């Protein structure tokens, strides 16, 4: 009897460990950036940089701030744990990141880390009107409808971003400067991997994740439009 009870305990522990392992699967991959040459925002160029070197202010070069401007996300094709809350900092006079991807129905908190106020709003989205966020203050919103909208700051015209509200969003990757990205703590299943830059969706690819994890083939970025 004792041995049978011990066996049941071992089976339960084994099942728990198996479930824990399945929940900890990860997806890794790399974005190939060389061929991707997005147009630089005219407003940002005019507000912050000179066209010629002058020894004082930096010239805006034709480069992409990958961690800030690219968003790599996973959408579930079936039931999955949802991203119920996301916090977006405003730091150094900019949105961090500037390409914002959130789940429909999730709570989104804009956190002002600057020493000045911001009035962030989304053009054409009635729920996201300009409202002051004091220094070190926060603003909480819930976006129920899917869609995408430009994001601006009424007090600082150079601030620009883009908000994508998606159904079934389950994970947002950490993207390195060289295009490497990683998703962790994922449940095995079928997903759609998407890459956004500003208003544009650059990649949409179905993947299937097992308990052993997945390394996605390198993805070449190409502009597809909003």
Summing up helix and strand content along with how strands pair, one would put the structural category as mainly beta
User: In which range does the helix fraction lie?
Assistant: 10-25%
- The H-and-E topology, N to C, reads as HEHHEEEEEEEEEEEEEEEE
CA radius of gyration is 21 Å
Average the pLDDT over all residues and give the rounded result. 82
What is the CA–CA distance across the termini?
Answer: 66 Å
Number of strands: 17
So how many helices?
A: 3
Q: How can the largest sheet be summarized?
A: 5 strands, mixed
Broad shape: globular
Low-confidence runs: 1-22, 42-61
* Fraction of residues in β-strands: 35-45%
Commentary on this structure:
It is a single chain. It contains three helices and 17 strands. With 226 residues, the protein is mainly β. The longest helix has 22 residues, at 2-23. Mean pLDDT is 82; it is low at 1-22 and 42-61.
């Amino acid at each position: 009897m004792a041995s049978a009870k011990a066996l049941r305990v071992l089976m339960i522990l084994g099942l728990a460990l198996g479930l824990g392992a399945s929940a900890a699967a990860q997806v890794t991959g790399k974005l190939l950036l060389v061929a991707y040459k997005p147009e630089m925002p005219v407003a940002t160029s005019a507000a912050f940089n000179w066209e010629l070197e002058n020894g004082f202010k930096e010239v805006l070069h034709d480069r992409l701030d990958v961690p800030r401007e690219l968003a790599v996300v996973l959408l579930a094709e079936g039931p999955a744990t949802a991203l119920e809350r996301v916090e977006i900092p405003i730091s150094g006079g900019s949105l961090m990141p500037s390409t914002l991807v959130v789940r429909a129905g999730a709570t989104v908190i804009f956190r002002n880390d600057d020493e000045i106020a911001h009035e962030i709003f989304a053009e054409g989205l009635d729920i996201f009107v300009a409202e002051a966020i004091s220094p070190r203050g926060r603003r909480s919103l819930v976006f129920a409808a899917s869609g995408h909208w430009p994001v601006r700051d009424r007090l600082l015209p150079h601030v620009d971003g883009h908000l994508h509200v998606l159904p079934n969003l389950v994970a947002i990757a950490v993207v390195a400067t060289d295009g490497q990205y990683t998703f962790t703590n994922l449940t095995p299943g079928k997903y759609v991997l998407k890459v956004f830059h500003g208003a544009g969706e650059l990649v949409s690819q179905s993947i299937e994740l097992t308990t052993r994890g997945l390394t996605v083939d390198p993805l070449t970025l190409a502009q597809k439009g909003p």
